[in-house]
Design a protein that fits this description.
mainly alpha
């Protein structure tokens, strides 16, 4: 591979991240404009300040929400990986037990027969 090779999955994740951020910014601006529109007595400068602060707060809340979701996802992944690992170990143990029982049955059959 050359130095310009890109992991397609990582590239798509990066694009998705940028799209999510752009959508959140648009949602924040829209919500800020709706909020500021209800405040009749603001000057244009004050309205812009309110919209800017509202959008910043909206994005901060979105970031916290995403971080909580990511942390919960990590905890669930760890939990399910642990459960899968234990299930796989039990399945292997059962398989080995069945093989041992079949081998013992075969040996008893050969010894008796």
């Amino acid at each position: 591979m050359d130095e310009h090779s890109v992991d397609a999955g990582a590239f798509l994740n990066e694009i998705e991240g940028h799209l999510l951020i752009a959508a959140a910014r648009t949602e924040g601006r829209t919500a800020a404009a709706r909020f500021a529109a209800r405040l009749d007595r603001l000057t244009d400068g004050q309205r812009e300040d309110v919209e800017r602060e509202f959008e910043a707060e909206y994005l901060a809340l979105v970031r916290v929400s995403w971080e909580r979701t990511a942390e919960r996802s990590r905890r669930l992944r760890d939990e399910y990986e642990g459960r899968y690992r234990r299930l796989r170990q039990r399945a292997l143990a059962c398989c080995l037990l069945v093989c041992a029982l079949l081998a013992a049955t075969g040996l008893v059959t050969v010894a008796v027969g």
